[in-house]
Amino acid sequence: xxxxxxxxxxxxxxxxxxxxxxxxxxxxxxxxxxxxxxxxxxxxxxxxxxxxxxxxxxxxxxxxxxxxxxxxxxxxxxxxxxxxxxxxxxxxxxxxxxxxxxxxxxxxxxxxxxxxxxxxxxxxxxxxxxxxxxxxxxxxxxxxxxxxxxxxxxxxxxxxxxxxxxxxxxxxxxxxxxxxxxxxxxxxxxxxxxxxxxxxxxxxxxxxxxxxxxxxxxxxxxxxxxxxxxxxxxxxxxxxxxxxxxxxxxxxxxxxxxxxxxxxxxxxxxxxxxxxxxxxxxxxxxxxxxxxxxxxxxxxxxxxxxxxxxxxxxxxxxxxxxxxxxxxxxxxxxxxxxxxxxxxxxxxxxxxxxxxxxxxxxxxxxxxxxxxxxxxxxxxxxxxxxxxxxxxxxxxxxxxxxxxxxxxxxxxxxxxxxxxxxxxxxxxxxxxxxxxxxxxxxxxxxxxxxxxxxx
Length: 455
Hints:
The chain is α/β, with parallel strands linked by helices. The chain is built from 20 helices and 13 strands.
């Protein structure tokens, strides 16, 4: 689960990507779209699933880096089934710190874990230089049907680079207490959402429909939902067009909240933000399906007040996007790649592991769980007894296809505040901020040796 770290992309981690992205062009220019192959896997020969079973029987030690709350319970469950294997668990704290540590280990040539959690948006940065193993050699192609298309597509580009951990189809979490008190109708379109924002703030100036001080992950997901496809990567050729029709559609809509000051300026993922979610100062939150566990853990006083509804759309036709989500991969540095792949196979495909993950509030990427009546019909006390997974599972079926990230997405997210962020600070046109963000990314990509176009 991506939880708190999802919105905490750190500039330091983004800057560290510069060297990594530069190296990636070596892989791109070598004529291999995958960046690595089975015959270059460290200490490994392609043995398929049988080799993984043998590695589990033989046993050994592994190191696993992650920040998911369910990790310890999952590792404990794994070691009970496979007592010959010891998994050294390292909590990296969040995506930003995790990526920075991993990049430093890659640069040093030593110190990387065997298995590591990587967000979908950051995976390409490690695939292109050949720093993670292609798991096709271990028969992972047979696991395809276990997962929904979006998460599976996020880990399979010219190879199988990991297994999906979770998914984050977007929905709208709303404070029913606020909506009832101020006579608000749950919006189904963005026009209705804007009208609700105006009505709420006019009735009580301390209340806001949402908070947003400028968040790269939220912006890209909202552009995705609006039909934008601003990033297209094909090896060393990258298109960056943050002025496409979907980008403009979202910016023009969100400007109606940003420019008149209808968005709360409290920074996300702070104590103040969680307090605002608890007391209803913020009336809605549009985010990924992994959010319920965060509400329960970090905004407990909001229990009973919140509900979940589909994300508003532009014309009433159901469509959403992904926001967040992670995979686990096997690193090129692993001295026990078959054992690492076997652990990863269990971690993200075995029903016993996934059961532990779901118990911590995770939202699955596995089709079996998304179609399970036990999961779908589970009532949430926090959300007033609502069967919230019915809404969230429906959202997973309406994720718009065709989205891509840039090879340097974490760097791009790190400079977002210096470009689009100014539009929020000054309550000015977000389109202008997107243009500035585009210009910075075009320059950066070209400096790293990519061929970058804007249309």
